[in-house]
Design brief:
CATH class of the largest domain: Alpha Beta
Number of domains: 3
Distance between the termini: 55 Å
CATH superfamily of the largest domain: Glycoside hydrolase/deacetylase
Structural class: alpha/beta
CATH architecture of the largest domain: Alpha-Beta Barrel
């Protein structure tokens, strides 16, 4: 009886808290906002109108000064989300002029910046990554390059075939480039590059290092000596203050509980499990007790659909209604167990992402993570198409410690939000156990290595909020 009475009191307390929150939200505050152009160069009236129309449409007709009623945090979130939607409307527009637009909240005369965006004739404008020049420092570590006296001190960063890098040389120094293959061996002799030269990564090159030789033959460190302009084929990367890594194991199998969870708990870091709601308690899958234990110890639990539909399933292709029902069913089960994920992790069903994205929005998820794409994100994609790096399986990023450290090097040099997709259930990728050589052991090493390189290991919810809602810039 005491247990029942305690439960009754708890339920009543939760109901009252919920009721109070709803009333508070309904009453809320009158929040004042302004969205306007703050910098305009080579203005074209039609382009200004196109941008104004896009933001006005996303903000339900508002532009300039406007208000929203409700909790300030909720209203802020609504405004930023609408601005991001406007960005997606303008993705394919080519501008002749340059326009910077900002959204702010005005409270008692104080102005708080919530969002800013620059549209210009070149994607590179205002987005080049700024690294710091610090001439004179040097390291005795490293090795001398063949045929000259330059010393290689920087850690090579992973590159991909076809990527283009523009290098700005430091004054009074010679710039050398080194290509390496996947075994860490020189793929070709080192070569000189001049200021403004564009390096296109050839086939067979896995990582690259840029070395500076000063007039005094001092080679200073990678991040302190030059501006590296990373220009990807799909656009320019944004300058960021934070470097974020999120690690997700898909499916909710027991391998997460036996292999990953102990490492994450010991390292005091949250590694997520994306759980298939309809398979909890099945053979080789975690139970709700396992999930709740991990969650209570700081692990993030994400929604990975109800039935995990795949493009190979009988009856494919499914329509939007099918996905919406599947996602809602999963979400309701999570809520019934006290979990309230705002993000959906797409299953391999997402071969037709347009349908899945629409269903995800209808099911009231705030964003969704793809089953791959192998890109760092800077909040520059649709928030329902957040890319992830596939680790293991048939991916290029298999369980090899030097390779995985190379991925961390890439994140450390570019900034942004990198998300890993793992499968402890994969016999092709995951190496079970906890001993040296196991995937869990490598994961522990990666956690330490990432922290040593100034990278925060964060939940998907944190990365999403920082990157897509608040912006890392």
């Amino acid at each position: 009886m005491r247990i029942r009475e305690s439960l009754r009191v708890l339920v009543l307390a939760l109901f009252c808290t919920s009721l109070f929150s709803c009333c508070e939200k309904e009453l809320g505050n009158d929040n004042t906002y302004q969205i306007a152009f703050i910098e305009v160069e080579s203005a074209q009236e039609d382009e200004i109108q196109v941008i104004t129309d896009a933001y006005s449409a996303s903000l339900n007709g508002d532009f300039g000064l406007f208000s929203r009623r409700g909790l300030t945090s909720d209203c802020d979130k609504e405004v930023v989300s609408a601005c991001k939607d406007a960005e997606s409307r303008l993705n394919d527009v080519i501008f002749k002029g340059s326009y910077t637009i900002k959204a702010v909240r005005i409270t008692d005369g104080n102005v708080e910046l919530l969002y800013s965006k620059t549209y210009s004739s070149t994607k590179t404008a205002g987005l080049l990554q700024q690294l710091f020049w610090e001439q004179g420092g040097f390291s005795t570590a490293g090795e001398r390059s063949p045929g000259n006296d330059a010393i290689r001190t920087a850690i090579p960063v992973i590159v991909n075939h076809g990527e283009k890098y523009t290098v700005e040389s430091a004054n009074g120094s010679e710039t050398l480039a080194f290509f390496y293959n996947s075994n860490g061996q020189l793929a070709s002799p080192c070569f000189s590059v001049g200021s403004g030269d564009i390096i296109t990564i050839p086939d067979g090159v896995y990582s690259m290092h840029i070395s500076y030789r000063s007039s005094k033959n001092i080679d200073v460190s990678y991040a302190e000596t030059f501006n590296l302009y990373l220009i990807m084929e799909n656009g320019i990367q944004h300058p960021l203050e934070e470097k974020l890594l999120t690690i997700i194991d898909d499916d909710g199998r027991m391998g997460y509980y036996t292999d990953i969870y102990p490492v994450a708990k010991a390292k005091k870091v949250s590694i997520a499990s994306a759980v298939i709601a309809g398979r909890v308690g099945n053979k080789n899958y975690m139970t709700w007790d396992n999930i709740n234990e991990a969650h209570c110890n700081g692990m993030e639990i994400l929604c990975h659909t109800y039935s995990h539909p795949l493009t190979t399933d009988e009856g494919w292709p499914y329509n939007v209604s099918f996905f919406e029902e599947d996602y809602r069913k999963a979400k309701n089960i999570f809520y019934a167990h006290g979990l309230t994920p705002d993000l959906l992790v797409f299953s391999g069903s997402s071969g037709l992402y347009a349908r899945c994205q629409e269903a995800c929005k209808r099911a009231s998820f705030e964003g969704a993570l793809l089953a791959g794409d192998n890109n760092i994100t800077f909040g520059d994609t649709d928030r329902y198409k957040i890319p992830r790096f596939k680790i293991g399986n048939d991916s290029s990023y298999h369980w090899d410690l030097p390779l995985l450290k190379g991925m961390i090097n890439k994140l450390a040099s570019s900034g942004g939000w990198m998300v890993w997709m793992m499968h402890t259930s994969s016999s092709k990728g995951w190496v079970g156990g906890s001993g040296k050589g196991s995937s869990a052991y490598m994961l522990g090493e990666i956690i330490d290595y990432a922290r040593a390189n100034g990278i925060k290991i964060v939940t998907a919810e944190y990365g999403f909020e920082k990157t897509y809602l608040n912006s890392l810039q």
